[in-house]
Amino acid sequence: MRNSVALSLSRRVIAAALLCAAPAVYAASPEAPKGAAVLFNGENLSGWHGMPHYNPYQLAAMKEAERKALIDGWTKDARQHWKVDQGELVNDGHGAYLATDKDYGDIELWIEYKTVAKADSGIYLRATPQVQIWDTTKEGGKWGIGADKGSGGLWNNSPGAPGKDPLVLADKPFGQWNKFHIIQVGERVTVWLNDKLVVDHARLENFWNRNLPLVKKAPIQLQTHGGEIRWRNIFIREIQSDEANEILRKHGSAGFADVFNGKDFTGWAGPVDQYEVKDGAIVCRPHKGGTISTKEEYADFVARLEYRLPPAGNNGLAIRYPGSGDSAYVGMCELQILDDDAPVYAHLDPRQFNASAYGMTAVHRGYLRPTGQWNFIEVTVCGPTLRAELNGTRVLDTDLSKVTTYMANSAHPGKLRTSGHFGFCGHSDPVAFRDIQIKRLEKK
User: Fold this and answer.
1) pTM of the model as a whole
2) pLDDT over 80 (residue 17)
3) Is the pLDDT of residue 23 over 50?
4) Is there a shared CATH topology between the 9-239 domain and the 245-440 domain?
5) Phi and psi dihedrals of 68, rounded to 5?
6) What's the CATH fold of domain 245-440?
7) How far is 306 from 318, CA to CA, in rounded Å?
8) Top-level CATH class of 9-239?
């Protein structure tokens, strides 16, 4: 399915005059980490507008005039409750939250805060709650909902989900400054609080619709929730695709083995003459194709790799391929690899778009990078289930045993195969694959 919500809130922000400058208190802007930008300049609220806990899908669906009027009202309210005091951003515990004028995707964020007893706050990433901040003492009255475990967790995740509770309690006593360091790539969030790891590469669930992945870009929000909170030294660095891939590849790397040596087709079978090794990648030759696959077979496994598409490029991942035949049908499936933003593919069946289980299960679209950039995909195959994370975002989660309708009414007799080879389904275009790794999973 296409995630049709475009959260370009930065283009719909009210005039900067609504967040007028406070008297300057810094001789110069705070010094940002290398490569980072200053989000709060210590002098005024430039770059921010008002936005409370509000469904961003509803906001994006409004007519422009209605949306602008709503944001104007929120920003006017925010001015009554937010101020700059001695270089610190201060909220009195009430009013609309502050949201960045700019939308952000993959980021590295630094932020310090200091709060008071019984306060409750947090940081919304991509307009989604939240990295939790609260009074962790028993007197705060919220041990029953997890405050005893500390701040920094992704509190709005489902009960028991990774990241919901922080790994350690790292809060400092009231009156002292706490420091967050946050990295987000796709839905994957890592949080350090006061230099202690509290969330380790956990998915931030979409609070607004748990059946959808997070939006690709949206504002960062600072929550206000009943008690004074002060913020300072707020910096952000946008993470580019190559670095994002490296972050995703490094996490949980134990157990993965290389299945391509970057030099030749050792360990591979099929029409390898239809492909070439170029700059450490397997590339389908132009106007050539066919399915090549590992000589080894796999039952349950996780595959990680990067791929790069040319304009309108088309290929696929062969999952549990028997070694001959049309991999989309005789194998468990072909996981589509496609430049589905190309105009030529505008009217495809939803079960043909990039990262779909070809012909069987549609995918959440909108997470493919522009042609020429490397995408990172992780595919988990367990029994009849298939899950794909594209650039850190879960875009496919399906049980093929439950699929009963097929594109063009063409059945997939191999969908319940329990083992097979892993490979690439060339379709005449020079699609490139590199850093190909597989980890076998033990049956439970």
Assistant:
1) 0.92
2) no
3) no
4) yes
5) -60, -40
6) Jelly Rolls (2.60.120)
7) 15
8) mainly beta
